[in-house]
Amino acid sequence: MAQVRTVHVLNGPNLDLLGQREPEIYGHATLADVERDCRAEAESHGLELLFRQTNAEHEMIAWLHEARTGAAGIVINPAGFTYHAVPVLDALRMCECPIVEVHISNIHRREAAWRAHSIMTASVTGMITGLGVDGYRLAVRHLAVRIGRGE
Ligand code: CA2
Question: pTM (2 decimals)?
């Protein structure tokens, strides 16, 4: 039987409020809209999708431990964890599958310089920042192509 290949899409703190706050920065789409787009993209490539959001660092770490053995690829928007959460970074480094870090806004163009300095970036395969919620779908597509190539 062919092995089921699953892409894990993991979202950090406050992203449950996507579409309800600061639409001028993050747009009007909700996280449910993002999940729908990611699922459609994954299914068009014959992949399963696990889509999650948490406000708790320990939960994100537990999900990364799950992804370490269970994921064919990871898309992560670490949100507020991006800047200081060393345990999340350590868990990310334990994952051997390709990882795409996604930020909805362009973290290099924000009002505060500190937003540009993700501690996660050095440990991921690549990053998409500033393409709005399209970044998620594009990240899933990229992973699907890599997985299809056996990478
Ligand atoms: O652009 C992104 O995706 C961010 O990762 C979002 C994070 C922010 O701390 C990063 O600098 C960039 C979280 C922003 C706060 O949460 C909100 C969620 C929905 C709407 C407004 C804010």
Answer: 0.97
Q: Are 151 and 98 in contact (CB under 8 A)?
A: yes
Say whether pLDDT at 2 is over 80. Answer: no
Catalytic residue selected from 103, 108, 117, 142: 103
Alpha helices of the chain — where are they, by DSSP H? Answer: 23-26, 31-44, 57-70, 86-93, 134-148
Query: Residue 144: CA atoms inside 13 Å, Cβ hemisphere, count?
Result: 19
Which position has the higher pLDDT, 130 or 111?
130
Output the ligand 1 site: residues, CB below 6 A.
14-15, 17-18, 21-22, 26, 77, 79-80, 82, 103-105, 107, 115
Tokens of 90: 């350590």
Enumerate helices (H) and strands (E) in the chain, giving the number of each. 5, 5
Q: Average pLDDT, stretch 101-124? A: 96
- Torsion angle of the four alpha carbons 120, 31, 98, 124, in this order, in degrees rounded to the nearest 10: -10
For residue range 42-51, list pLDDT tens digits in order. 999 999 999 9
Give the contacts of 90 (CB within 8 A, at least 6 positions apart).
none
Nearby residues of 96 by Cβ (< 8 Å), 6 or more positions away = 68
